[in-house]
Design goal:
The chain contains 5 helices and 10 strands; from the N terminus they run H-E-E-H-E-H-E-E-H-E-E-H-E-E-E. By secondary structure, it is an alpha/beta fold. It has a 6-stranded mixed β-sheet with strand order 6-3-5-4-9-10. A 4-stranded mixed β-sheet has the order 7-2-1-8, covered by helices on one side. The longest helix is centred in the N-terminal third of the chain and has 12 residues, at 2-13. The protein is globular.
Amino acid sequence: MEAEVNKCLEVLSKGGLILYPTDTIWGIGCDATIDSAVRKVFKLKQRSDSKSLISIVSSYDQLKKVTHINKEISFEKPTTVIYNNIKGISKLAISSDGTAAIRIVKDNFCQQLLSRFKKPIISTSANISKDDTPSCFNDINQKIIEGVDYVVDLRKDEIMNKISSIIKFEKSGDISIIR
């Protein structure tokens, strides 16, 4: 796993794209702070840049660096939270209303990668927009595999089709359940 983390760090630090297993699905990732890297994700997925992307972080401390949250919240299952008043990530990863979707991951590989990278990483499903989300590595479109700079060589035989819950912290303080 160490070699995989090291290779991803090398690619991410150069603004490249990785294809990697997460706590939910196989994802396309990049440094969430670099506009040009985030643009590559939209282009590869053939996705409108008006649709926002999820970013992942390893901890509450990393989350505090990009949000104005001051209270730690934990969830039992993978939960993506839409936060207001985002700072420190690419404007392309932020919705027009100033919100961004961020998840603290518990997956061991992602934890190690994010802890060492020290910045959020984009985490979007490894599919062309409007195609089904692949449930395992072998279902990933060859254009996606060929379009990234590095494919992580871990967990390729696992079925990965969990979908994270999505909630939104409203400016009013209320919480909305999206999915």
